[in-house]
């Protein structure tokens, strides 16, 4: 379940490139106030510590998003970001030294901390915000054993297919309406231009492989449906099931086809060593015509000198349904959930604020991120693709499922699944890869 941690860390450094902050925080044990209580004496502010994976430029924006609220409410929010969050949050909780609030990048990690008795049940105001402003699925991701332990923060929508609108217009290409249409479009591009149209990069340092898991998750959800997806994530359907193999087989029609990949970088074997953000450069230059990535690729494209928009250099359409005629979008995505180790008055106020439309609008208006909060005004997003992503999340007909590898035990989601995707693009047969990934599941 390290996926979101690693992706966010690398996105912050490679995709934005700002100087890192040096952040520190004082912490306390579960249920112990950090000088809180709704305000300090003698004009001093109460202090609430927050710990998460958000670093560098994104951490600066996070702190900016609540700065006015801090002053208005007499509460000092002290944020600490770390790329070692997953390991350290457990160590700090076990040692009686957790933060007041933690921003969990994976629902599975939040559930694990709740199951061990470290997290506190979400206060009434947070639960109220969650049920009023978020889709029902999100409550499940913020709960354990029927009890709500937090509320979502930010979100992202995966499964976008990025392309150059001008190239489509020049060649008379249309956005496909189903999976077979996407395959047909790909072959047409090869026939017309004699070169691979797709580029892909799985490279992400220690997290290499996660972009491949996104492909498989998108195909499982679209081909087998949300019920099978849920059963797969819960290990009621194993990786060796024919329905999961079918998703690999369909993905292989693009990623393992040397006629289709890896534009601008080499052959199929180059996928594993190509940094995931580098595809933006190839897309902007025109060396690559199609790539599959989440909404956050927007930032990489801008850094590469491209303009994102329907009439810009690069735009995106959602990976189409497996069969045409489906109602509503079917999407995967990710996000964070804020859980509490302290329940003093100041901590509760901060947790409630972070679950509110007011905070969501404040943060999104600063750029670069979105939220699934229904009270968010899409117009506050400074990117056209992020506005489109918000509208998808807020649409009641959208079928949304959280990133599967983030829901699986880390031994699988950030272990054998990542490794399996690396081996797969390097030539290991699919059935062997599936058995290898399946063997990573912890014993019951």
Describe this protein's structure.
- This protein has helices at 3-16, 56-73, 85-94, 107-115, 124-133, 136-141, 165-171, 179-193, 210-224, 226-233, 242-255, 279-285, 297-303, 345-354, 357-364, 384-394, 404-407, 410-425, 430-438; strands at residues 46-52, 75-81, 101-104, 143-144, 147-148, 150-157, 160-163, 291-293, 315-318, 330-340, 399-402.
- With 444 residues, it is α/β, with parallel strands linked by helices.
- The chain folds into two domains: 3-157 and 333-403, D-Maltodextrin-Binding Protein, domain 2 (3-Layer(aba) Sandwich); 160-318 and 409-438, D-Maltodextrin-Binding Protein, domain 2.
- The longest helix is centred in the N-terminal third of the chain and has 18 residues, at 56-73.
- The radius of gyration is 22 Å and the shape is globular.
Largest sheet: 6 strands, mixed
Question: Helical residue percent?
Answer: 40-55%
Task: Count structural domains.
Answer: 2
**What value does the Rg take, in angstroms?**
22 Å
Report, as a whole number of angstroms, the end-to-end distance. 18 Å
SSE sequence, one letter per element: HEHEHEHHHEEEEHHHHHHEHEEHHHEHHH
| Assembly context of the chains | single chain
- Number of extended strands: 11
Q: What would the principal axes of the Cα set say about the shape?
A: globular
Low-confidence stretches: 1-41
Which percent range describes the beta-strand content?
A: 5-15%
Query: CATH homologous superfamily name of the largest domain?
Result: Periplasmic binding protein-like II
CATH level-3 fold name of the largest domain: D-Maltodextrin-Binding Protein, domain 2
Quickly count the helices.
Answer: 19
